[in-house]
Amino acid sequence: MSFTLEGFLLLFSRLSGLFLSAPILSSRMMPVRVKVLTIVALAAMMAYFVPINYVRKITNPGYFVAALVVEILIGYALGFVAYIIFAAIQLAGQIMDMQMGFGIVNVVDPQSGMQIPMMGNLIQTIALLLYLAIDGHHYLLQALAQSYELIPVLGLNLDGNVIELLIRLSVYMFVIAVKISAPVVFAIMTADIAMGFVGRTVPQMNVFIVGLPLKILVGLGALLMMMPVYIWVFKILFEEFFTYIDQIIRIMGV
Question: Hey, what long-range contacts does 46-49 have (CB within 8 A, 24 or more apart)?
Fold first, then answer.
């Protein structure tokens, strides 16, 4: 294949949408100039070997502008599906923090620039490292390159199946968060029940003073014990959401 300016701009737009929502690629720690140069370099390389299919020929500037907007939307949708898993992990950490007493302690997330809970930042960082270890960002770029086989230019299909899948994934995000945080929350609730019995049998003890550090200790201990299990679960979740990326590509195709 030969390099064409039209193909380069279309690839640049779809990559730009991916860099707006995908984990790691959308990080605010990466300067904007570096992002733009990375997108330009990737689009220039991919323009030589990625076959770009068209639903209809682009005959005027209006069609071309519409095609660029649609390409950005396609790339954003692919990155958003991958981002949902990290949003679920962050939500699980927030649930843990509320039970441990860290609900008012937040740190700045370097990925999004927002304040997130401490445990959410910890397990999200572990998930990001695992995501890089299994080359999840490479899989996203590969999926984007192969998406032109099913989603040609101006061939985006936004029917009810796409909306249904996105809603199902959003609901699934809360289910994942509850399942991830369940062991730690259960351990803390057990400590709360034990402190309740102690408070009834030993009224002289101030359970509020003793209970707060005990909950933190129990929560950190449960999190430490569950960390190997979490790493195994995160790997399974990544593989599952990679299949969802393939599924949304098929649904959005013509």
Answer: 46/11, 46/15, 46/145, 47/1, 47/3, 47/4, 47/7, 47/8, 47/11, 48/1, 48/2, 48/3, 49/1
